[in-house]
Amino acid sequence: MKIRKSIVAGMFYPSEKEELKKQIENCFLSEIGPGNLPIKNSKKYIAAIVPHAGYSYSGFAATHVYKEIAEINKPDIFIIIGNNHTGLGNSVSISGYDAWQTPLGNINVDKDFSNEIIKNSKFACFDEMAHTREHSIEVQLPFLQFFFDEFSIVPIVLKEDKDILEKAKDLADSINKSAKDLNKKIFVIASSDFTHYGDSYNFTPFYGTNQEIKKKIYKIDKKAIDKILNLEIKEFLEYVKENDLTICGCAPIILVMFFSKIFKEQGKLLKYYISGEISGEYDNCVGYAGIIF
């Protein structure tokens, strides 16, 4: 069995099992988190956008989404769309591993579903290279393991290139068709942070007081989020490109928008803040949004 071992345990989240579970619980119970743990019921959602930074920064926004996910009837498969930070691999890269490992255990990859996507898609292929050093999928897994004992995943890394609209729509349609063909209940997660502000992120600073910086970043991201919630796909991409925005997971976001559009399900913003509100560092900070569809 080929296992994709965790690469950011001990950095983005704790490497020790009980410490990791405690940090996730604390994110749920904190004031900036939802404030409580999920209660099982039968909410109906199909997709989400979740940040992927270190848990001490973005974990609170993530728990707002995972609270809702934990309250749905458990799907058979979580399709997790990661951003390609490394540039490695193909444009639509499905994990070739048999399982993914975190400190909370191994999660099986559904190879039958992966093969079905590849059969139905013009662009998707198996490619381990894109996944070897990519953290955006891995950081989502412990949140799922915190609540669900048995589930499988299909990890897909998606590049943002000049054909992203065509490729994202193709992948969304392929995922939906595969779910129907195999009679599987699925949930799609797009992994993305929002505006990366400051010199460290090649975003020309506009300077000002901390509150002025916060206000401007909120305004930038709100325009993007409004387009996401309303499934304005082309308008979202145009806004990002025309303003040179540093939203790192544009491709996964666009995929989820196409997927949600199939079911005519608009989005709902659950939580938004910037890392400066936690760290006190506003010169270089990142926006985090939790969105459910």
Largest sheet: 12 strands, mixed
Helix and strand element order = EHEHEEEEHEHEHEEHHHEHE
Q: Quick one: CATH class? A: Alpha Beta
Global shape? globular
The total of beta strands comes to: 12
Distance between the termini: 34 Å
CATH architecture: 3-Layer(aba) Sandwich
- Count of alpha/pi helices: 9
What's the CATH topology name?
Protocatechuate 4,5-dioxygenase, Chain B
Q: What percent strand?
A: 15-25%
Class from secondary-structure proportions? alpha/beta
Radius of gyration: 18 Å
Helix content: 25-40%
Q: In the residues, how many domains can be counted?
A: 1
CATH superfamily: LigB-like
In round numbers, the mean pLDDT is: 96
Which spans of ≥5 residues are poorly predicted at pLDDT below 50?
Answer: none
Describe this structure in words.
By secondary structure, the protein is α/β, with parallel strands linked by helices. It has a single domain, classed as Protocatechuate 4,5-dioxygenase, Chain B, CATH 3.40.830. Helix content is 38%, strand content 19%. The chain is built from nine helices and twelve strands. The protein has helices at residues 17-29, 55-70, 111-120, 141-147, 164-182, 210-229, 233-242, 250-262, 276-279; strands at 3-4, 47-50, 77-83, 92-94, 99-102, 105-109, 125-126, 152-158, 186-191, 196-197, 268-274, 285-292. Strands 1, 2, 3, 4, 5, 6, 7, 8, 9, 10, 11 and 12 form a twelve-stranded mixed beta sheet that branches. Strand 5 (99-102) and strand 6 form a beta hairpin. Helix 6 packs antiparallel against helix 7 (233-242). The longest helix has 20 residues, at 210-229. The protein is globular. It starts with a strand and ends with a strand. The mean pLDDT is 96.
